[in-house]
Amino acid sequence: LSYKVVVSGLSLWRRFLVQPEVDPRWVLFPAEESSKSLEWLTSLVADQELYKRYHLALEHAETSVSGQEKENFVIKKTREIREQSEQRAAISRTLAASVLLVGLHRLQADG
Known about the structure:
Blueprint: H1 3-17, H2 24-28, H3 36-46, H4 50-66, H5 75-110
């Protein structure tokens, strides 16, 4: 799971939803089918395992860059990865909730 891709995607969704010519109903509540974007945003907000996916990604990146095996990690490095993955998960969830709120606010404002 790429943190940069998630944050960039959320930033672009937010930018898209605040455009005056965009009707959030088209994206968040399409008439014909379920909304993949709404599913993705709500899954990010509610995902309790997001921290673990970021942790695995950071761990993989660290082993790839350093050439060390997972078992050779120092406790300090493991703690840093855990704290960074928790922070990334919290930021991702907050951004996803913010994007949802922007869309819902636009829906309410438009009536």
